[in-house]
């Protein structure tokens, strides 16, 4: 029996098998996508241990790292940035060239502040920010220690 006859004879079984395989693939992919954004996963790297430990003590400890550190404007941008930052982080981890205290670059600071505003939109209507009133840089400028504190003993500023 050749492939064409086999597929013709078992079309329904092939379709069901393909459907099950597709559901399994997307389920596993979704679980991996979620798992690789958690503080537990991010804290496994030697260079992120300080950030993970201070984050556990912060008022934001129930959030995932990706809530602050990845864009949420659309799914494609999120996935591209997740892949890019994952590759960059892995490169620096392998090369062991992260500084002792990791700092956000300008684009990361902007992204984190945009995510602050995304989550705290309702309270921001009562807050005057920046010179012009809506600088996306303001959050991290004044509240940089909320999620990670200033040393291993501090979990940031508690605002509860």
Looking at this protein, list some descriptive labels.
160 residues; mainly alpha; 59% helix; single chain
Helix-strand topology string: HHHHHHHHH
List low-confidence stretches.
none
Strand content: under 5%
Number of strands: 0
Instruction: Give the integer mean of the pLDDT values.
Output: 83
State the assembly state of the protein chains: single chain
Brief digest:
By secondary structure, this protein is mainly α. Helix content is 59%, strand content 0%.
What does the model show?
By secondary structure, the protein is mainly α. The protein contains 9 helices and no strands. It has helices at residues 3-9, 11-35, 39-42, 49-56, 65-69, 75-95, 106-119, 121-124, 138-143. The longest helix is centred in the N-terminal third of the chain and has 25 residues, at 11-35. It is elongated. The chain starts with a helix and ends in a 17-residue tail after the last helix. The mean pLDDT is 83.
SSE topology sketch:
Layout: H1 3-9, H2 11-35, H3 39-42, H4 49-56, H5 65-69, H6 75-95, H7 106-119, H8 121-124, H9 138-143
């Amino acid at each position: 029996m050749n492939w064409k006859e086999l597929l013709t004879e078992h079309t329904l079984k092939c379709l069901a098998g393909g459907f099950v395989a597709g559901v399994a693939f997307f389920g596993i992919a979704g679980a991996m996508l979620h798992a690789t954004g958690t503080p537990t996963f991010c804290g496994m790297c030697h260079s992120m241990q300080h950030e993970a430990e201070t984050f556990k003590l912060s008022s934001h400890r129930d959030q995932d790292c990706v809530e602050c550190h990845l864009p949420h404007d659309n799914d494609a941008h999120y996935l591209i940035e997740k892949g890019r930052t994952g590759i960059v982080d892995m490169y620096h981890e392998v090369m062991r060239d992260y500084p002792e205290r990791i700092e956000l670059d300008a684009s990361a600071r902007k992204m984190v502040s945009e995510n602050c505003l995304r989550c705290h939109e309702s309270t921001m209507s009562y807050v005057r920010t920046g010179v012009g009133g809506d600088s996306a840089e303001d959050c991290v400028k004044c509240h940089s220690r909320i999620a990670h504190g200033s040393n291993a003993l501090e979990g940031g500023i508690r605002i509860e």
